Amino acid sequence: MVALRFSLRAILLAGIACGSSFTSPESWAASCCGGGSSSSLIMPKFSRAVMNLSVDMENYNGFWNSQGDYRPDPKDSDLNQYRINLGYAHRFASRWQGSVILPYVWNNNDYTGLISNTRGLGDTTLNLWYETFDKITCVWKVRQWADLKPAVYLGGSLTVPTGISRFDNVANSFDITGRGFYRLDANLLVEKTIYPWNALLLLSYGKYLERNVNRDYGNYVEPTRRQLGDRMLATLSGGYTYFLESMDTLTFTLAFSHLQEDDGRIDGRPDPSTRMEKNSLAGTVAWSTMDRDWIFKGTLSHAVPRNDWGENFPVTNVLSFEVSHVLR
Amino acid sequence: MFFARRLLMMVALVLLAGCDDVMDDLTPSGEDKRPEVVFGSVGAQVGQIAPDFTLDDTLYTPYTLSTELGGARAVVLYFNMWCPICDTHANHMRQHIVPDFPTVRFFLVDYVSGSVPLSRSNQVASGYTDFTVLVPTSDSFTKRYQATMGSTVVIDAGGRIVRMNEDYLDGNKLRATLEALP
User: Fold this and answer.
1) Domain ranges of chain B
2) Residue of A nearest to B23 (CA)
3) In the CATH hierarchy, which top-level class contains the domain B54-179?
4) Within 10 A of A101 (CB to CB), how many other CB atoms are there?
5) pLDDT tens-digit profile of A8-28?
6) C-alpha span between A164 and B41 (Å, rounded)
7) ipTM for the complex?
8) Spatial distance between the Cα atoms of A138 and A198, rounded to a whole number of angstroms
């Protein structure tokens, strides 16, 4: 009887639980390369708004060089970036939602005696999402083909360079909290839950806008037009949800992310020095209250310090804690 | 809705609070703001005479700028901190620039290690034993050259900084500068 009541409640709550606000597991920064980026924020169907607060602690552990070989950081270096991300998502219509994420960044670096402690805004992200579905797509059992239909979101993002970039009045590369370029992304997110399992695929293609540059690391330089290379992100994740006795849920998720940027451009010429690639693994534990109005998450994102897991980019581990409140 | 408006106001206030730096990236300028220099004066700007120096390399061999210029068409200083971008730059320079300019002296300047043994260790670990790595033991040298990660300084045989004291970027400007040397 208890088991039956449990499963009935579970079915009733499935609709609410499904799509409990999620953020992209991909979260990457790198203070020496800009950093301060934040992920997208999506709210569940039929909710009115989501407030989100997350804290990221990123520790640097060497880098991949341009050939993809792993190189440790110099001895006696301790590089860290901390971020607080404020997010707010709002539903404009039954199928439309938008969000804004504003990071605040602390750099705390000791690089073989070169000590830098700086802080400032990171780059702000504005997102707009269109939901291609009207009904909740999470199911407990597949009884017909229609039950396999996933939730598909189509989105666009604008990254606004509100951070402190290398083109601002900075003393060195450790001072920066943003990349200095506007970027437009086209996003596709596909999510399917067949309880207790779920899977998510996020594909994103971004284009940086070209800009003028007349200063680099604090020194005025011969003006040029610069552009970072096109950016591609793919994240695949799978998760398992436990329904607790209280009907709170505990969801464990494993994710793999691939991020790359092509050659940049300087006055129209290719600039291979900004090309990068990063592969990372992430594990997330999320606890949701019974009514799914509060979600607490802890995520560890790990970049593997081995050859050919990345290129021209720092190897980092990111520990994140996140609280979301869903307004119905 | 009320919350959204408050959030937007808060964001706007925060943006305005850090206005100077934020505005630089929000509305970037293409105006040439490099300071005018008195040609022949000593300093780090293009057109000035490069400050002379003597620095040890990672094998404790001393190198003096004026002496090096006596036997070369130019000296190139690349300011290196053993980071991903530095590695990309230095590797590009090694493969695509250095072989084409045998009469130019190329130096990596390790401005972060602070000691010869640590610098040697980083040089070996990073695979740059084929480069001469100069090791300033204080930051005054880097300040005198107004340099930071990736700064590339070209000094001609007359001791003058020519065309560049700026980021290596894709190496094209360095190549063009060296090709234009007398």
Assistant:
1) 54-179
2) A162
3) alpha beta
4) 25
5) 333 333 343 454 455 544 433
6) 33
7) 0.83
8) 9
